[in-house]
Amino acid sequence: MTALAERVLEGDVRAASRLMRWIDDGLEGAAAELRAIFPRTGNAYVVGITGSPGAGKSTLTDRLITICRKRGLTVGVLAVDPTSPFSGGAILGDRIRMQDHAGDPGVFIRSLATRGNLGGLSRATGDCIRVMDAMGRQVVIVETVGVGQDEIDIAQMAHCTVVVVVPGMGDDIQAIKAGILEVADVFCVNKADQDGADRAVRELRSMLELRHALKPQPVYDHDEHHRMKGAPAKVEPRDDEWEPPIVKTVAARGDGVEELWEAVEKHRAFLERTGLKKAKERTRAATQFVALLRERLLSSALQRLERERGRLEEVASRIAERAADPYELAESLASQLAE
């Protein structure tokens, strides 16, 4: 095992920061270090905080860190910020809002840029979660960039996904249309001191009730006296079904945040009781493996393209001038890689 990997496993923050930088920059040495620490991962509980920009995710994350520390839990935070399409840099402002924990050795906060990735997460997020896991962080909170309705990647990375909404998010039809709401394990209505908070809660409850209405109805049957018997008036959730709770908070004042963390803990107990935690782990492993495979295959394909047909820019120019067929090129490269 390398010296850097050993230091990460000992909880060395500087070593972990260096490895995360290697991962984020795509340096070759990162893969060997990740292989070394991988057997010691799988212990952290990953909580995703997602929602629209301005919903108060960073302030909420800051309050959740405080609660976890009061309970004696070590915490790692990955705050994903948008990358500028012009400079390639990121403001990384979420970490500024969490400065109260900067001197706490039980808290490690790392900012990541999206690097242009859609879905609200950086391609390096999964590997950085593993680094925090390997260094002994019991809870890893991932705060996504807040891209709106398509921000569902976090549901495949986290054990528990908290979707943060605020009053005035739109009418109930829009709430139902928003795909991001379908990935929630816990709903948080933040800024609940503002007008419209109760309406937001009602809209979310309506959406959850609609889910039940869309489920297949029980089959009507006859009893022992050949009388028709129907379904009960209200179908209660089964033991293996999770009903996402709705928690109202005012993160700026800390109101309701204790209740929010209790909801997260209840979801964790539910996953462990039903065995669904292992299913979440398999989904997370599959997502990260496919992402890694896609990255490796794309890199190999581009290298082969450059060797045989020229640089990507040159090939793109020929395609734009209709001097080359992109479909034939892609099929040819895919066939060669499969050999």
Account of the 3D structure:
The protein has 339 residues and is α/β, with parallel strands linked by helices. It has three domains: 1-40; 43-274, Rossmann fold (3-Layer(aba) Sandwich), CATH 3.40.50; 276-339. Helices cover 46% and strands 13% of the residues. It has helices spanning 3-9, 13-25, 29-37, 57-70, 125-134, 153-157, 172-177, 197-214, 257-274, 276-309, 312-320, 326-338; strands at residues 45-51, 75-81, 107-113, 139-143, 160-165, 186-189, 221-222, 228-229, 246-248. β7 and β8 form a beta hairpin. The protein is globular. Mean pLDDT is 82; it is low at 83-94 and 116-120.
In short:
Helix content is 46%, strand content 13%. It starts with a helix and ends with a helix. It has twelve helices and nine strands.
Helix- and strand-based class?
alpha/beta
**Basic shape:** globular
The profile of the biggest β sheet is: 7 strands, parallel
Q: Would you state the CATH class of the largest domain?
A: Alpha Beta
Please report the total strand number as a whole number: 9
The CATH topology of the largest domain is what? Rossmann fold
Number of helices: 12
Percent range of helical residues: 40-55%
Q: Measure the end-to-end span.
A: 34 Å
The strands making up the biggest β-sheet line up spatially as 3-2-4-1-5-6-9
Mean pLDDT: 82
Flag low-confidence runs: 83-94, 116-120
- SS strand fraction: 5-15%
Question: Judging by the overall fold, what is the CATH architecture of the largest domain?
Answer: 3-Layer(aba) Sandwich
